[in-house]
Amino acid sequence: MSPLPKIPFAKPPKTFAEQVDKLKDHGLDIPDPVEAEFYLSQLNYYRFAAYCLPFEQNHATHEFQAGTSFDDVLNLYIFDRELRLLLLDAIERIEVSLRTQMAYQLSHRHNTAHPHLQSALFHDARTYQVSIDNLTDDVSNSREDFIKHLTDKYQEDLPPIWAVVELMTMGHLSRWYDNTRRRGDRQAIAKTYNLDESVLNSFCKHLRSIRNYCAHHARLWNRDFTFTMRVPSWGERVLIDSFHSDGRSIRKLYNSLVMTTYLMNIINPGHHWKQRLIDLIDEHNVEVGRMGFPVDWKTKPIWAV
To answer: Is residue 224 a contact partner of residue 240, using CB atoms and an 8 Å limit?
Structure first.
């Protein structure tokens, strides 16, 4: 079947007041149009509309379910925003911990400050070269005093690994870990978290996607992820017994939150990140099933307070 012919986009831009009227015409209850107009002047109608979808009874006409208010949609938007910020907090801590373990384990296991300059330690030559090129660019462009000191004083092509890891993004870190040739090296890093290296490797790749969504302020709460993490089949029961992998839920956020909580309990057990997540869900009273949560999620061992 040939594609339909394209037509010109003829919809005119609408004022913020007209956007409010459009939402009202679709059945959204807006007690304070002035306040709604203010929020739309800050949020962008197109962005706000994405959070309207769960409240629509007819997606073709965008007609809202009876009794849906502007505040209901705004509550969901605020929840998603605060969820992204909470996840960024955890991702930062996980990323810093992984940097530390990558530098420590590779340097000690191979008795060198520069394992990243030994191509034999990495299995794909093309990926290694891209990683080295990216790292070289990051070092050259860095304005960090410690990087400048190391490059000015020492003759090696790059600073030692415990310095350059501080320039690695989550994406770069994930690629270095994935490309590490020896399973024993990857396993030494994963052992810190009582995980198999294949599980940690998979989660690092998945976490890279989550971080990108969070950093670019994209909708997160009910997203289907293209690249999903590998759910481990063995390990600590508090982790294994808390996953939910029925049907479409495997592509949702729930399992990611389980693994994030598990890692946060190891990396920073006194931080109460788990409780902050539970409180956020309770405060906004969102439909967690759209994030892949099982009905009995609070009975799972990872969520025990």
So the answer is: no
What three-state secondary structure class fits 31?
coil
Q: Are 253 and 79 in contact (CB under 8 A)?
A: no
Q: What angle do CA 131, 137, 139 make, to 5 degrees?
A: 100
Mean pLDDT value across the chain:
95
Task: Give which of 98, 95, 87 is closest to 274, Cα–Cα.
Answer: 87
- 3-state DSSP assignment of residue 91: helix
φ/ψ of 241, rounded to 5, equals -80, 0
What per-residue confidence (pLDDT) applies to 271? 76
Distance of alpha carbon 58 from the chain centroid? 31
Nearby residues of 17 by Cβ (< 8 Å), 6 or more positions away: 33, 37
> Residue 62: left if φ>0, alpha if ψ -120 to 50, beta else—which one?
left
Q: Rounded CA gap, 78 and 293, in Å?
A: 19
Q: What is the pLDDT of residue 234?
A: 87
- Global pTM value: 0.92
147 by Cβ neighbours in 10 Å (0-12 / 13-18 / 19+) ranks as buried
Give me the helix-helix angle, 170-179 and 197-215, nearest 10°: 160
d(CA 200, CA 230): 9
Query: pLDDT (tens digit, 9 = 90+) per residue, 6-60?
Result: 999 888 999 999 999 999 999 999 999 999 999 999 999 999 999 999 999 998 8
Token pair of 120 as six digits: 């034999």
pLDDT in tens, 237-279: 999 999 998 877 889 999 999 999 999 999 988 779 999 999 9
